[in-house]
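Case 244 in the screening queue. Each case pairs one protein sequence with one candidate compound; here the compound is LXAUTJHC. For every case the pipeline is the same: read the inputs, emit a complex structure as tokens, and attach any notable structural observations.

Predict complex for case 244.
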Amino acid sequence: MVGAGMKMSDIALPAGIQSQIGRNSQQLAESLADAVADMIEARLKVAPRASLAVSGGSTPVPFFRALATKALDWKRVDVLLVDERWVDEESPDSNTRLVRENLLQAGASDARYFALKQPGNSPSKVLGAVERALEQLTLPLDVLILGMGNDGHTASLFPDAPELPRALAIDNPSRVVAMTPVSQPQERITLTLRVLSAARETVLYLRGEDKLETLAAALSEPDQVAAMPVRAFLKPGLKLFWSP
Ligand SMILES: O=C1O[C@H](COP(=O)(O)O)[C@@H](O)[C@H](O)[C@H]1O
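Case 244 output:
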């Protein structure tokens, strides 16, 4: 079923994808924060540090606020974004600003934050510096929280970016790629598919019926990854969190 009022039960998820449905965005954010805190805590029991890669955009604010209050050993947690818009941190479009104002608060202010945005007027000019900064981060990522746009992008893997083939190439050794999607007002930087797809735990966090329609479209032709890059993540092991 496609159209207004689409429900999670209208979607046939492939085997191995678990879904959790929230009654509303606040309840979903709290369930996701509980689940992510458990994932980080489990990792910290067996490793000196744990990493958490999060998405920007409008969806994650209540999740960030709920997670920031969790009693974790935040000093041992590395936080980074999966993508960034090339704007100053003061800009309302800055994903870094969103993370600083909503996640890196309370106990979570002790986390180590890896900024993808570096001084420079274009991401393509500073990719080397970003790569060097990310060398301090242990891979694979432990916990990855992805969002999705209604064009099927996730992170800044946009279908209309000329750099997409390089960002999707699993044999590309880079951790980040500069992206110039035709549809977007700003340049972007994104973690590559190689880095993202190796994460130990991957969550796709969606809110709203429109996102269910997009998800249904993505599931309909799973092999056409370049047309809807989120398809690269719709595989066994994915945890889907959705609320109206
Ligand atoms: O531009 C972006 O969009 C996606 C989806 O954002 P939302 O506002 O629909 O939640 C996000 O996952 C990505 O990190 C962000 O840069």
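Case 244 observations:
- The pocket of LXAUTJHC is lined by residues 55-59, 82-83, 95, 147-149, 156 (CB under 6 Å).
- Strands lie at 18-21, 50-54, 77-81, 83-85, 112-114, 143-146, 176-179, 188-191, 201-207, 239-243.
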